[in-house]
């Protein structure tokens, strides 16, 4: 069976844009002669949709998008994450199985995470039945699951394997943290060996507020060996063939897996993707950040340039009486090295005015870190107006 893993970057709430993205990758999968194409958890709505799920119109429109996508599956089968609703109004984190222009089935996620960044029990009802199916009589039996389902030992994935599923498909929106890639690979290797089947793990990629989804989709053989590792932090369509014989090696459009990133590069790429998507998905045109001449603001500026390009980044030095000539020159050198616009705005007049206003409260006290901390508030005040009015941008950076 030829399977395409569509590791896509969708946007929470952008149903029209997500539909176009899924349709594009569906067409690419068909062009690659795939029998089956997989899309991530809640690909239609974006993840996590949170309180958008409480809006009836959002649910209806998400279902309408799904119907339009189902109609595009002539000659191919797709498994697509969406938000389902039953006749009683209960919501489900669901996967639609669309085959040759019709909805062939739907699976409801059984294990709903409710810890850390996850709050799925607030929105969804758990499913109550594992799902196995065969697309064609000669095809292997498939098992369908969603994200947390595969993390729980003895959960639906094991039940599907017991029912004869030989290819275990898992649609995920698994957020990144340092070390997560290795953690996933070890888990999936255990699940594949325990189930005696292939695992096709398809993960979301992209940034959403404080979350970064790193992709890194995987195909693992029954012996627990990773046959395909998709790149982290990149969109793409990755095609493999699951062989007829369980002992054979997978063959696909890739001759080998993407190399694993070293820990520092992995963290840097996560920051770049999170920054880029926060800016782009919120419609900002550029970013404005404070440059102090220190390593922290220099690194922040480097991330911004890697994410957006130097033409969309402005660095602002805001010196005061506490700023040395060295830090002021270092801030300028950082901007020159990165090729970004640079401004210098002294905060000394505002700082003097603040000290004058607080003179009575500070009487009898020697200057300490309190006066220095006033600088951060002043610098933030100066950064916000150009960020919100002049540059249509977000802002962050070193405001010490």
Describe the structure.
With 400 residues, the protein is an alpha/beta fold. It folds into 2 domains: 2-260, Nitrilase/N-carbamoyl-D-aminoacid amidohydrolase, CATH 3.60.110; 284-397, Rossmann fold (3-Layer(aba) Sandwich), CATH 3.40.50. 36% of the residues lie in helices and 24% in strands. It has helices at 15-31, 56-70, 148-151, 156-162, 180-195, 263-281, 295-308, 325-338, 348-357, 359-362, 369-390, and strands at 2-7, 36-38, 77-85, 91-99, 102-108, 131-133, 142-146, 167-172, 198-203, 205-208, 211-214, 218-220, 226-229, 236-241, 251-252, 286-290, 313-317, 341-344, 393-397. A 7-stranded mixed sheet has the order 5-4-3-2-1-14-15, covered by helices on one side. Helix 7 (295-308) links the parallel strand 16 (286-290) and strand 17. Helix 6 (263-281) packs across helix 7, helix 7 (295-308) runs parallel beside helix 8 (325-338) and helix 9 packs across helix 11. The protein is elongated. Residues 390-400 have low confidence and may be disordered.
């Amino acid at each position: 069976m030829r399977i395409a893993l569509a590791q896509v970057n969708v946007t929470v709430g952008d149903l029209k844009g997500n539909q176009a993205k899924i349709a594009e990758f569906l067409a690419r999968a068909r062009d690659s002669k795939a029998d089956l194409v997989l899309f991530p958890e809640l690909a239609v709505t974006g993840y996590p949709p949170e309180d958008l799920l409480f809006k009836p119109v959002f649910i209806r429109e998400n279902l309408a998008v799904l119907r339009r996508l189902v109609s595009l599956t002539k000659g191919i089968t797709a498994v697509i994450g969406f938000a389902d609703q039953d006749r009683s109004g209960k919501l489900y984190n669901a996967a639609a199985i669309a085959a040759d222009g019709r909805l062939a089935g739907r699976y409801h996620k059984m294990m709903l995470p409710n810890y850390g960044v996850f709050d799925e029990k607030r929105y969804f009802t758990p499913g109550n039945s594992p799902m196995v199916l065969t697309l064609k009589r000669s095809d292997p039996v498939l098992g369908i699951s969603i994200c947390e389902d595969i993390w729980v030992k003895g959960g639906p994935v094991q039940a599907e394997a017991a029912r004869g599923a030989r290819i275990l498909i898992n649609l995920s929106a698994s957020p990144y943290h340092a070390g997560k890639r290795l953690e996933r690979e070890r888990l999936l290797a255990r699940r594949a060996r325990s189930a005696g089947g292939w695992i096709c793990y398809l993960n979301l990629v992209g940034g959403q507020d404080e979350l970064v989804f790193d992709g890194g989709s995987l195909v693992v053989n029954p012996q627990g060996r990773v046959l395909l590792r998709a790149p982290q932090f990149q969109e793409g369509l990755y095609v493999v063939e699951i062989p007829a014989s369980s002992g054979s090696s997978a063959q696909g459009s890739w001759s080998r897996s993407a190399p694993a990133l070293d820990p520092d590069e992995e963290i840097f790429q996560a920051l770049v993707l999170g920054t880029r998507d926060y800016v782009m998905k919120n419609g900002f045109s550029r970013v404005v950040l404070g440059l102090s001449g220190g390593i922290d603001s220099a690194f922040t500026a480097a991330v911004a340039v890697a994410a957006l390009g130097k033409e969309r980044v402005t660095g602002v030095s805001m010196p005061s009486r506490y700023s040395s000539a060295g830090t002021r020159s270092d801030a300028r050198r950082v901007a020159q090295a990165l090729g970004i616009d640079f401004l210098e705005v002294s905060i000394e007049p505002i700082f003097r005015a603040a000290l004058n206003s607080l003179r009575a409260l500070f009487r009898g006290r020697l200057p300490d870190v309190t006066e220095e901390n006033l600088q951060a508030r002043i610098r933030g005040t100066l950064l916000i107006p150009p960020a919100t009015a002049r540059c249509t941008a977000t802002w962050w950076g070193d405001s010490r």
